[in-house]
Amino acid sequence: MFLMFFGLIVAFGKGEALEHHTPGSQVTLVGTVRCEVFPGPPNYGETPEIDRPEVACFLELSVPFDLQASSGWVLPESKAQEKVTRVQLVISGTEVWKQIPQQNLEALAWQNVVAKGRLETPSTAHHRALALLVVTELSIKKR
Known about the structure:
Blueprint: H1 2-13, E1 20-21, E2 26-39, E3 53-67, E4 81-91, H2 94-97, E5 112-120, E6 132-140
Parallel strand pairs: 1-3, 4-6
Antiparallel strand pairs: 2-3, 2-5, 3-4, 5-6
């Protein structure tokens, strides 16, 4: 009995090595879409009574990854990130929008998706995560 229990500890105690990526890497990520509302322009939370709501959608990842630092990162908190579990989805280009139901990313909320694209780092007040995925392909994950 002890050996069987010990074997389970050894088997689960060894974490699998995470993939390492750098900004600009082309990746395929799998996870669940979550959308949140944040204070937007004009003052992004400094004046809540007049700031417009802004929706940002994220991919909560099934498998985390490490994001290595690279020179040229804009924000001070933009440093190497270990075990990234959430990326903000950035959609641009009509071809990608055509892949999204009703051309509304919120329509995918709580769905499991496969997203392909380029990893980037935050550079504006619109960016709400320390890792961004500039999406080139997006599809609902088949079970």
